[in-house]
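Changelog note: in this version the structure field was regenerated for every chain. One regenerated record is shown below for reference.
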Amino acid sequence: MKRTWLLFSQTITVLLALYFVVLTLKPEWLSHRPVNFSVIQAPAGSAGAVPAGSFRLAAQAASSAVVSINTSKAVRRSPHSNDPWFRFFYGDQPDEPQSGLGSGVIVSPSGYILTNNHVVEGADDIEVVLNDGRAARAKVIGTDPDTDLAVLKIELDKLPVIVLGNAENLQVGDQVLAIGNPFGVGQTVTSGIVSALGRSELGINTFENFIQTDAAINPGNSGGALVDTQGQLLGINTAIYSRSGGSMGIGFAIPVSTAKMVLESIVAEGQVTRGWIGVEPNPISPEMAETFGTKATQGVVITGVLQNGPAASAGVRPGDVVVKVAGQPVLSVADLLAAVAALKPGKAYSFEIDRQNKSVALSITPAVRPKPRNVSQAKNR
């Protein structure tokens, strides 16, 4: 009897041990209750609903009109490239054409495209690839290096066209999207806000009035679109501030108002014609005021006048302070440049001058602004 009881006890102990092991590691083996599993299904037809805060509609409205631009430039070989001594000192010259990459925006059903001048400058062949996969060779209608803009034209039917917005209503903090083809990976949409307005004196272009944004802009985005949350064009992406070559959250776009003016001038005349008077302007600083003996606190001081230029012929002298141009106040060098550039060459305009603390009215007839050799020529207005 004792042996039977011992065997029974050991059996019960082993079974209890197995029960606790199974209960711990595989509890579902011991449970026969049905699993309570349910999901919440979206109503039929709601799959396309736009989530709150989404920029989907803006991206869809604008992206079809943003194109990729591929350029190629033939290698300009030296006439001495076959000379053994030339090759010894300079090495073998490359034979492959140089390629470039950028973006553009279709702004007319006729096939006109806005992009950056630096995207197509010097290119021998330009190919435009649409977001729907179509491709076409593009012709350069005209360029404007002063604003770094260019107008291309392609011959295709049923072209998508972007809607031009109003950058004058922009405020710092407004949400924007940047659309382009960065690094050639394909069309990309990035979002951000307007970080600043009216950025100038950056040394990028002659005429600078940039929209600054933190929307990611990278190489290949140049010439692409900066749009609002309705998908309307606010600017042409043109440059970034970067130490690495990639986006650091500081990008610049040319306002749509400037782009539209350049587009209309190039399409109508083949070029952009601006006024020019031939002066060297500088901001009024305490040192400048002391040097020229002026008490003026508003305007732009003229430190140099081009001999036989329009300003010199009208009597402008070094030390004069330009206060108004055609009735419009001048508050900075950028204001003077923009005001003079907007004047029609060959027509006389009134200039209000502060000369030795006395108001002087002069009539100046602007000439056609010379074509720039480089950005440094921007100092000569």
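Spot check on this record: The longest helix spans residues 2-25. Confidence is low (pLDDT under 50) at residues 374-381.
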